[in-house]
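Subgroup meeting minutes
Present: P.N., E.W., G.H.
Scribe: E.W.

1. P.N. recapped why we're keeping a running log of single-chain structure predictions: easier to compare across weeks, and new members can see raw inputs and outputs side by side.
2. G.H. added today's entry (246 aa).
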Amino acid sequence: MRTLTLHRSQIGRGPLVLVNRENALKDAPSAVLAPVDERRPDILMERQAARLLSACIAEIRGAGEIVPVSGWRSQAEQQRIWDDTLQESGVAFTRQYVALPGCSEHQTGLAIDLGKARAEIDFIRPDFPYSGVCQRFRRAALRYGFIERYPQDKEPVTGISHEPWHFRYVGAPHAHIMHERGLCLEEYTALLRREEVRCRLENGRTARVFYVPCAGEHTECTLPDGCCQISGNNVDGFVVTAWGEG
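Output recorded in log:
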């Protein structure tokens, strides 16, 4: 076992940060950004997420059929989208489909809106059906650490209407666990506060996931030997993922 000291500021960093109306971004993301598609160099994601998204689309041979519509957004861009949608479509529509500035997953660099290639694509609600290449992407995306962030049956929990086009990188094994248990990110964050979760991955390895509450400015975290990942949850603590052999 080994001990690591975590700073309170790290709560707002990592692939498992929960960003919604109740949990605004703690500070400006420090992620290194990269294009998700060389044909759209203006659409960026956190570098690891961008690499895995590209690999997933390549695996299903979806290049040219699946189009990145919107990735990372600055605070100013999110404010502009909010203001423009409010003016064009009204309050109810805007609150259903556009996050408040400072409360948008897009500002983390971990979220991407995807659309099926068409001559014209709706920026706010791109078409991404549950069939064909789009559905092949959904099935493969879990292995690459992506979830459909706003499912239809989770609207009361997420506070956002069903968005078939919005995907969020959480990493493995979390995407697999959330899918298997039917959880959205809000529910997964709450589950980890209550109990440790273990799962077996496709490669035969195991993963152990547990929560460490923030104890103040500095938190001492005891980690198992071997490969571990630590992510803030953007609420009140940290999530530790430890990988082991089967």
